[in-house]
């Protein structure tokens, strides 16, 4: 094993801590872990080392500090502790304040706190995680990498809602987007794969995981994206509805006697593929069920594909031209069926799928999946948000690679 400096990447949720120790130069994860039920007495942490999983109870305070301390002990046991030179944190919301990744200072912490109103479930957990890491690794520089930052290049006509503008100026109601770290990584990789200059390319990238969104990237900059003030807007997702008529709120309040909280919960957790199919939020499972004649699964996949294809058309408008349509995320990287359905809708724009190439680009293999006469390249590029966070962290802390 080389003796390269390492970056610790942390992604802290309210009851979870996800971590990866990365060798940035080799683009390699040396160890990863996931702490679950953080904050509860039955909290536990699972380490993945050399492909093997080891599960331990989280003792002591059972909180984010306990999780990060358990990680620190594991790093010492593995002889990696002294090689970790910086920590990179995933932060969901950076509002309009953060347009790029940044070294964490007391002022940056205050600004992340100020964004809590925009991400009330996520930013408080990130703050706990950053504080825990500062306590456990007081001498290491820490970097925040924001999901929203990449989309701060969107022009006003793309990020404004057509509602009274005072709601924007007073409360910050606008479109912020998400998955920015993934888009930045995939845009770079797409250009590199095609051996082209990212600054002279128009791409539409669809990040399709449990959460799903699509972004127009022109000359390396986000022009528009499908998620909005929150991740609920846009595409059909695993359990989120994506775009709906906002009047559904008052309609359901009046007719189904549902509260705002109940409707919000239903739209976020019981809708999307799950709600349409009445079966599952999992695309792979729905594909199997549809193949066996399950009508709900078929409908769910059809609505997902149709909405996505319509959005590709919209994002082409945002780019003004198209060099590459790129699929990424668990569904984008693996579902040959979903890619086929979507690209078939896009024949109208001259995009044509190469059936064999589509079947080959799966399970982490990138590739061009369109025919030579397709008007633009259709591609599969696996995402790697952790590597992007680690690369930013190494760059911003002047790490010697
Ligand atoms: P997350 O947003 O949680 O990171 P992922 O990017 O891992 O999610 O994507 C999860 C989705 O990818 C699930 O809907 C899963 O069914 C889908 N998926 C993974 N592998 C396949 C496959 N071979 N075929 C179809 N869908 C797949």
TrEMBL record:
Chain residues that bind ATP: 18, 207-211, 282-284, 330-334
Keyword annotations from UniProtKB, A to Z: ATP-binding, Cytoplasm, Kinase, Magnesium, Metal-binding, Nucleotide-binding, Transferase
Transmembrane segments: none
This protein's GO CC annotations: cytosol
Molecular function terms from GO: acetate kinase activity; ATP binding; magnesium ion binding
Subcellular location, principal: cytoplasm
This protein's pathway: Metabolic intermediate biosynthesis; acetyl-CoA biosynthesis; acetyl-CoA from acetate: step 1/2
Gene3D superfamilies associated with the record: 3.30.420.40
Location relative to the cell: Cytoplasm
Cofactor(s) this protein requires: Mg(2+); Mn(2+)
GO BP, sorted A to Z: acetate metabolic process; acetyl-CoA biosynthetic process
CDD domains cross-referenced by the UniProt entry: ASKHA_NBD_AcK_PK
Keyword hit for Transferase: yes
EC number(s) on file: 2.7.2.1
Reactions catalysed, as given in the entry: acetate + ATP = acetyl phosphate + ADP
Binding, substrate: 90
Family of this protein: Belongs to the acetokinase family.
Role played: Catalyzes the formation of acetyl phosphate from acetate and ATP. Can also catalyze the reverse reaction.
Subunit structure: Homodimer.
Protein name: Acetate kinase
Species name: Snodgrassella alvi
Designated gene of the protein: ackA
